[in-house]
Write a structure and sequence with these properties.
By secondary structure, the protein is mainly alpha-helical. Helix content is about 65%, strand content about 0%.
C-alpha cells in the first residue's frame, strides 16, 4: 500500500500477502469450487465439531431450563427462555450441518441455516441484557 494515499501500489496489492501461508489455500467462496475441490475441502473439515455441538445441546437445554424455573420474575423467565431457544437452536443446527450433510447441496442449505441460527443465538444472547 502507498503510505501517503492509502491506495494500493498495484492492482494485486489487496493485503492477501499478509495472511498466514497456511491460510492461503482455504477456500473463501465455496460456490466457486469445482466438485472435486469442494469434496476435498469438505473432507478436511474438523471431525469433532458436530459431535461437540451435539453433546452441548442437552447441557445447554438442561442448565437454561433450570435457570427458567429459578427465575422469580416472568419477564426474566421469558428472556432466559429466548436465550435458551436461540443457543439450543444454533447448536442443534450446527450439529446437523457438520454431522448429517452428505452432499454439496445439503451442505450449502445447512450452511445457510447454520449462519441464520448463529444470528438467532446472538439475538437470544442479547435479549436478557435488554430485559434486565
Amino acid at each position: 500500500m502507498d503510505d501517503d494515499t492509502g491506495a494500493p501500489d498495484s492492482p494485486d496489492d489487496t493485503g492477501a500477502a499478509d495472511a498466514p501461508e497456511e491460510m492461503m489455500d482455504v477456500p473463501t467462496r465455496p460456490a466457486l469450487l469445482t466438485d472435486a475441490e469442494w469434496l476435498e475441502a469438505w473432507a478436511a473439515r474438523p471431525v469433532l465439531r458436530g459431535w461437540l455441538h451435539a453433546s452441548a445441546v442437552p447441557i445447554v437445554a438442561g442448565t437454561t431450563g433450570y435457570l427458567v424455573t429459578r427465575a422469580q420474575r416472568r419477564d426474566v423467565r421469558i428472556a432466559v427462555g429466548v436465550y435458551a431457544a436461540g443457543v439450543t437452536t444454533m447448536l442443534t443446527v450446527s450439529a446437523a450441518y457438520h454431522r448429517l450433510s452428505r452432499t454439496r447441496r445439503q451442505a450449502e442449505v445447512m450452511r445457510k441455516a447454520d449462519h441464520a441460527a448463529i444470528y438467532g443465538a446472538v439475538a437470544g444472547t442479547m435479549t436478557p441484557f435488554a430485559v434486565v
